[in-house]
Specification:
heterodimer, A: mainly beta, six-stranded antiparallel sheet, four-stranded mixed sheet, 10 strands, B: mainly beta, five-stranded mixed sheet, 3% helix, 47% strand, elongated
Chain lengths: 144, 520
């Protein structure tokens, strides 16, 4: 009887663990948040700068997107607990003369530069951001 | 009464006449050896330049070996010269003295005279138009002394060298200004003094020979060392007028006769102040430099990881060869030059093929010059020079080379993206190797990963750590200094460079970067 109880307890803990922190085959955590962002309306290569977005989740810097041209989609993958969360982004562009990325002035940052979203118990949240001329940002949130 | 007065007057007259020391006068005709006017040494004789082609011959004898000083007074408007011959069936010309100037005296010092007969011819110099002067006499004077520690003129050729003994100073003169008998190529008419010394086969060879030639006012001197075959072994470095000239720690590997040539750079003359010349022989040890090592082909081997050397001028170069042992075994080596005086040393590092890899001048005068980590798998050369040096300083230094042990040691040169050290994480141990040093490391992985960077700066330095995108553009930069470590996370998009820049140099202590994958 005791043995059966122990097995059941272990199984419960195991499955609970699976739901809170999914792990891939190679041991890394499976992402349940995907953010992607890009600029629209760029039709001049001269103005299409290399860039990335710094990601702040719940006011903590957690990483950055891939790098790419402003017109290209740049992505970030993360893993969050089930809850409501705040995503804020910072856009950085390459200053070729300095050989380093610099943070864009606030006036040139996407507006708005944040979004609140919910992470469900299962599935992945996909947030897409498109920034049009005038730095106006549109966010689309979907669950997969 | 009259008689008494007459006697007194007579006596006074005789006395005053005998008080006047009369100088003998040449007896014309004295225009040949046969008719030469004889005179006593340690005395003077006067003569006249009666005609434009007048030649006055004098003869004198020396009863024992002597050193003579011959002075010929100047004659206004006339350029005089004299020649000294040793008598014989064929008279031997010993010295021709002509300073090439009108009205000036001619001097010859340290002329060594063996017992015997000699002739002097006083005549016009070669440069100016010949003028007679029947009104004013010239004076010729010869003073002799018992030979001591002085050069024995003529010592103008190796075969006439004055012998030198170790530790004894010998005196000579940068005089006369010209040696008109010197017809040798580029040094034509240069007055040269040759000396010789012996290195016996009873000495444990090699030995180190150091030569010191004291400075003389108004003379830019030089001393050169030759072997018995008159092959130049070493030369004192360039100096300025009045300063001493030296050759330090010249390695002598074979017994035999060695020659020193003392001369001036630009026909300088000082007939009143003698120079002094001496040499010293020191034992050689393998931890000491052996000159000449001014070229890569003459490089001294560094034994037991250190060697003592000496720089004699800013033009002096010392080459050393470090043998790494097992060829192909790649290791890092730290190198230090420790000065003994206020000298700013420089170091150049060459690979086995003689290609210059590093030029190191990280520190200033009287500071240890450090190159902390040179990575190689083969023998290498180190060249040492000095940026500043004065004669009053000791040019001594110690060069040490030590292999480094440690985990994740950088491989200099890694100063560009192309030469970046490949890393996969773990510990990186690097050094600020030169001023404004930049070290590149390339971190690559098959997928995009977040890494944690834990950075410990050199104890007394400050570094700037940057992480780049795959193209090498900096994405994140943090500083770490002294006790203030830096830690941060950053994404690496399959590949990214870690760039370490020196903000405040500390060449002695390493920085450490620990890179771990962040799996949170």
């Amino acid at each position: 009887m005791k043995t059966l109880f122990l097995i059941l307890t272990s199984l419960i803990i195991f499955f609970q663990g699976c739901t809170t922190t999914p792990v891939s085959r190679n041991g890394s955590k499976i992402s349940n948040l995907v953010f992607s962002g890009h600029d629209t309306g760029i039709d001049n290569p001269e103005r299409d700068r290399r860039s990335y977005y710094r990601i702040f989740l719940d006011k903590v810097e957690t990483g950055r997107t891939t790098t790419g041209l402003e017109s290209q989609v740049k992505t970030y993958r993360g893993n969050l607990d089930t809850n409501r969360h705040l995503l804020r982004i910072e856009k950085w562009v390459l200053d070729e003369k300095k050989g380093r990325y610099i943070k864009l002035n606030n006036i040139s940052q996407p507006k708005p530069n944040f979004i609140y979203f919910n992470v469900p118990e299962k599935g992945t949240v996909i947030i897409k951001m498109k920034t049009s001329r005038g730095n106006h940002a549109d966010y689309t949130v979907t669950e997969n | 009464m009259k008689k008494t007065i007459l006697l007194i007057i007579l006596l006074l007259g005789v006395t005053s006449f005998s008080c006047k020391k009369s100088i003998p006068v040449e007896k014309e005709p004295n225009n040949s050896i046969k008719t030469a006017t004889p005179f006593e040494i340690n005395g003077s004789i006067s003569g006249f330049m009666d005609t434009e082609s007048d030649r006055d011959y004098y003869s004198f004898s020396v009863s024992e070996d002597s050193v003579a000083e011959i002075n010929l007074s100047g004659l206004k408007g006339v350029n005089l010269s004299f020649r000294v011959f040793k008598s014989g069936n064929v008279p031997e010309l010993l010295k021709l003295v002509d300073d090439n100037r009108k009205s000036s005296p001619e001097v010859l010092r340290n002329l060594f005279l063996q017992k015997g007969d000699y002739h002097i011819i006083v005549m016009h110099g070669t440069r100016d138009p010949r003028r007679k002067n029947r009104e004013t006499p010239y004076q010729l004077e010869i003073k002799t002394e018992i030979p001591g520690n002085e050069e024995t003129e003529p010592n103008d050729r190796p075969a006439q060298s004055t012998p030198l003994r170790e530790g004894e100073e010998i005196r000579g003169y940068f005089s006369p200004r010209y040696n008109w008998l010197n017809e040798s190529g580029e040094n034509r008419f240069r007055e040269e003094d040759f000396y010789k010394f012996e290195i016996g086969d009873d000495l444990k060879l090699p030995v180190l020979v150091s030569i010191h030639l004291a400075g003389v006012k108004g003379v830019n001197s030089t001393v050169s060392l030759y072997n018995s075959g008159m092959k130049l072994l070493g030369e004192s470095p360039e100096t300025v007028s009045g300063n001493p000239s030296e050759i330090r720690n010249m390695g002598i590997k074979e017994p035999g006769t060695y020659y020193l040539l003392v001369t001036t750079k630009k026909f300088d003359e000082n007939g009143s102040e003698p120079y002094s010349l001496s040499y010293r022989v020191d034992e050689y040890s393998r931890s000491q430099e052996l000159e000449p090592n001014n070229k890569m082909t003459e490089a001294n081997s560094i034994e037991e990881n250190s060697i003592r050397g000496s720089i004699s001028s800013t033009a002096d170069s010392d080459f050393f060869l470090y043998r790494t042992g097992a060829q192909g075994e790649e290791k890092s080596y730290s190198m230090e030059i420790i000065p003994e005086a206020d000298i700013d040393f420089m170091m150049k590092i060459y690979n086995n093929e003689g290609k210059l890899l590093f030029e190191v001048n990280n520190t200033g005068s009287n500071e240890t010059e450090i190159f902390p980590d040179f990575f190689t798998g083969s023998n290498f050369y180190v060249e040492i020079t000095a940026r500043n040096f004065s004669r009053q300083q000791s040019g001594n230094y110690t060069l040490s080379v030590n292999s480094l042990e440690g985990e994740g040691l950088e491989s200099e040169p890694n100063n560009t993206k192309e030469k970046a050290d490949m890393v996969v994480g773990g510990l990186i141990t690097g050094y600020i190797s030169e001023k404004r040093d930049v070290d590149y490391y390339l971190l690559s992985h098959s997928s995009r990963k977040m890494y944690h960077f834990d950075c410990t700066p050199p104890s007394n330095g400050k570094i700037r750590i940057s992480v780049t995108d795959p193209l090498g553009y900096m994405i994140k930069t943090v500083d770490a200094a002294g006790e203030k470590k830096a830690a941060f996370n950053e994404m690496i998009d399959r590949r990214g460079y870690i760039v370490i820049e020196s903000v405040k140099d500390d060449f002695r202590n390493p920085y450490k970067i620990v890179i771990t994958e962040d799996t949170r």
